[in-house]
Amino acid sequence: MINIDAQNHVKGKSIYLDDIQEIQGTLYALTFDATVAHAKITSIHLEEALKRKGIVTILTAKDIPGENQIGGIFPDEPLFADGEVHFRGQVIALIVGTTEHHCRQAAKLIQVVYEELPIITDPRVAQAQNKLIMPPRQFTLGNVAEAWSQCEYIFEGNSDVNGQEHLYIETQGAYARPKEDGSIVISSSTQGPTAVQKMVARVLGIPMHKVEIDTVRLGGGFGGKEDQATPWAVMVALATQLLHKPVKMAMHRMDDMRMTGKRHPYAADFKIGLSKDLKILAYEVTHFQNAGAAADLSPAVMERTLFHSTNAYFVPNVSAKAYSCKTNLPPNTAFRGFGGPQGKFVIEAAIVKAAESLGISPAIIQKKNLVVDGDELSYGQILQQTNAHASWDACMTAYDYEAQKQRVADFNKNNTRYKKGLAVQPICFGISFTNTMMNHARALVHIYHDGSVVVSTGAVEMGQGVNTKMLQIVTEIFGIAPSKVRIESTNTLRVANTSPTAASAGADLNGKALQLACNALLDRLKKVAQNEFVATDIQIKDEQIIADAKATSMTWVDLILKAFTLRVALSENAHYATPTIHYDKTKEKGHPFAYHVYGTAIHEVTVDCLKGTYDFDQVNIVHDFGQSMNKDVDNGQIEGGVVQGIGWMTLEEIVYNEQGRLVSNALSTYKVPDIYSVPKQINIKHLETDGHELAIKKSKAVGEPPLMYGLGAYFAIRDAVKAFNPKADLAINAPYTPEKVLIDLYKK
Length: 748
Known about the structure:
By secondary structure, the chain is of the alpha+beta class. 29% of the residues lie in helices and 25% in strands. The longest helix is centred in the last third of the chain and has 28 residues, at 506-533. The model has no long low-confidence stretch (mean pLDDT 98).
């Protein structure tokens, strides 16, 4: 089945936030934000702005009827700055007018007097000054201190990895409309409708049942709309509640980039010890997370960094420590991989440093240390159904890695200006929210008299094809045509208390809940048919009822009408909670993941050693999909994830100056992969496995894992640079932009 949204997308018929038909009298909102990164607000002057044509009101912290607080994990993030600003782009006021143009003109007339305070942008500086979001956390396994004496080789170093702009095509926004009795409905471009509902209720000082959040689809999210879609929805809701008018906000790209958090930049120190036969015996790492000015999701992101600090390798002695450092930047947030890629990059850097020092290929160390069944990870989970070796071996065989190595070596021997590089990137990524309580979902299914079906879940469609997979579940269970099924928008009044669509768990959690609901309905319908035909076995195929293996004259519609006349319930609300998972944060041990996803990628790159530019010739992948529900959708996720990971590792560079101002604030200064910079070939092979029982229909999650393959792009470029300049002592800091490549090519 192709993505069910595909046709409407290409025809321009899909409804996004900015496509919602506006109610007469709709007002428009624009934020007024801080122009300094850290300061006390001495005074705010709104008088001249309020006199501007078309301006209805300007709201500040004093206008909030409830709490001026939108912090999720910690209550440390005001909706509007009150007395002090902590980053450039922090919202001070909300301008509401009859047009956005009028609001922008008014914004120029607002005057704020600041008393500037010291600015911190570097996480290491923040940690040294004890500016932390929370106390540090540490995962341990074995005894690292004792293990060093057993190591034949020990290597130390540091590694930094930059942030990444989400660059969803649809910018942040929301549209609020008043209802009766003080209720409000908000169309929000959010991955977490319940989180928006909760914060609107908190800020407005009303119960959650008076707040309806409705999300049809997103034009991309990538984690940037998990928590950070919330403030914009709360702001328009506040304006609507106070003015009793519909209010809309759709942010401009540069405003969005300036005011929102990114993937967390990290700095890290590492130490790795190997035996004579290249087994990793000990690994010690300290991560310094740049959280920005408020917690947002940083504690959870840091936790996943620790969970994935050893990637796909078994290390018997581990010490992984992480600091969440408070800086004067916009609060950084979730981004595809949620801290895992940052943790994985450091151990890959450590392996590469060891391999270069020993004069061997990193692939030798990687293969020798891949996890197997029964291995214990630093957080206590014992691995089962591991496919690290299987994906590695299949990748090496399918793409003839040995022949590829020889071809690359021959090319480099015969070419001066151009050099090729190779890198192998294995992955192991855990699937579940690491906060156990978030691993549950609900689904609501109605069957109507005519046999048509409407489905509501907590899953938000944002281009990943989750609606297509939900449709597949319904049609396969009921044996009916896709045309009979409608997947409704995600709505907090239909399906309440949802977890965000994130952590690669959207299809698993919501799909399992939907499966339970459909099977409960099917059981009722089968009993009706059993009584009708005095049969023991009832099947529904192509909307025809089959009794004891014989086709009957009864259709799906006939069965539904019969059930209705017998007063059989044709609606079901089901709940699913992932079993087996648990985690004890006091001991930093447990079983936090339902299962792990494995895979291996081989990157081949050609570097122009005169210009520092590079082309990715091919990325060859063998991936552990389990029993893929939809290969087209899943392959699309792999391709998109790989390219996004390559972009993060190579072209995309977030730059703030010392004053905390975003310099890379537009697509003219922030480069993302386009059609000319993606790999010439992305080859994907599905690893033949049985899948996992906790994956929906044994089809493993595929949202986040493929981004991790992008790490190999960095090391492939480095391999090519080393082929040109073998004696250079190179740092291991990402992204590896063409400018940095050029410097390294001629580094002494």
